[in-house]
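Lab notebook, bench 4. Continuing the backlog of folding jobs that were queued last week. Each job is logged with the same field layout so the records can be merged later without manual cleanup. Today's entry covers Outer membrane protein beta-barrel domain-containing protein, a 303-residue chain. Filled in by technician R.K.

JOB TYPE: sequence-to-structure
TARGET: Outer membrane protein beta-barrel domain-containing protein
LENGTH: 303
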Amino acid sequence: MNSRLVTTVAVVGALSLLAATANAADVIEEPPVYIPPAPVEEVSTAGWYLRGDVGYVFESETSGKYGYLRGGYGGGDFVQYYHYDNIETDSAFMVGGGLGYRFNAFARMDLTADYFTADLTGSSNCVDVPGSYCSYADSSEIDVWTVMANAYVDLGTYGRFTPYVGGGAGVANVSYGTMNNKFECSGGFTATNCGQTFTHEGMSEWRFAYSLMAGASIDITQNLKFDAGYKYTRIAEGEAFGWDAQDIANGASGVQGYDHGYDLHAVRAGLRYEFGGGGFGKGKGKAPVYAPDPVYAQDVVFK
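JOB STATUS: finished
OUTPUT FIELD FOLLOWS
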């Protein structure tokens, strides 16, 4: 009896041990499951933009030369040139606009056209008259169109404020109105022409021009920017006016007067609307999508 009981207990213990071992073998720990983060959309800074500007062109002073038909009247061989004492343009308002493209947060280019018209005056002493007893007083107006290809570098964005520098090159159409040339006499000097005014046809031509700019833009909305700055423009020398009727009757032809070009200084302000790319200070763009933290599945699975 005792031996049978011992045998039974031993068998039960062995079976329990085998069952425990089998259950332990069935426990499988799954490897961690890595869920990749959602893709983060990059903010593009590229895109087209439109701009419109108004500005103020300050008074400008230049010089020039004019031809004088010497005795003998017979053509260009008798023309002698003299220096203008001064040519001045009054200050004037200007308007402009353009189409541009932003390449990234720092570089952009645009093509612009600007226009202004201003009164013009000039003066010089009469030829072959000593002292200042006789002078020429000229008056006209000048219309100027500039068409420029410009490049800019934005110097970083500070809040909604983005300073920049730039430069451009292109052409300018300088068109003079009729030039009124008045002979003014003083100091007892008298001559047939004293007090008379002669008219000269104004010239119009395209010339080379370049410009330098500095300014800053301020974000109004994500797409719309207020842009203000300074612009310097150099316009090359060229034709100004033709001969009067009296000189033409005596054989003169072509151009009588030339200017030595213009140095224009202007302040300007306007709006720039960016159609694509960027965000505040850099154009239009969607906000980045932040990826969630990786999730690991670590539950124990029993088979």
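OBSERVATION: The first helix runs from residue 2 to 25.
SIGNED: R.K.
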